[in-house]
Amino acid sequence: MSNENTISSTLVAKDSLHPVIRSNLSFNTTFPRTQCALDVIYELPPSVFVDPNQLADRKSMLGQATILGETDLEVPLESVKDSRGSIVVLREPSTYPVDLPIHLRYQKPSNTPYRDIVIKPPVAGWTCLSTPTLHQRIPLPPLPEKWLRTTPAMFESFHSTDAADLQLKVPVGNEQEINMIEIGTTICVILCTLWVSVSVWKAVTRRRRYEAKGKRRKSE
Fold first, then answer.
1. How confident is the model over 159-169, as pLDDT tens digits?
2. pTM value?
């Protein structure tokens, strides 16, 4: 049996818009828990995002989640500010395998029905203080300065058994149908507006007639 800690990852429900990255971790060596923290790190392309609220709800299973990058759930791909995507760090997950729920962004219409998305396999390892007498846990760089400390730390990575990147296919709208969809949407909006206007006009007219009849009866 190998004395290396290993990580292997696959995609679950990869044909849906809400797949899951499932990572199996094998622990063949251990580190003192007071000096080291287990981190699972994901580098996601801009086409993929995570829901911060969803990860917070699963904190008991996934551990503390740190997200760097775009977290707006409704932003389409072409409006993502950071073209590099995002980084997700799960600290001290408590259940194995580790299942990270991800979501796919709306893609810009294209002439092809699907678009390929490539995701790098996640990295796992122990983040440990270089000085064994200290017990403060330090996040793995690269992170913003507010997450960094002056205490030196080291990262002992697990061996990855993944031979290739993770791949998804996301459906995209047909570019040739955009004009037809826009025209159809405009017609629907106009017809609905007319229907509401006519309904309001009829209701007001009936009300006025009813009030006019009431006034005539009183005058008689």
1. 888 878 999 88
2. 0.68
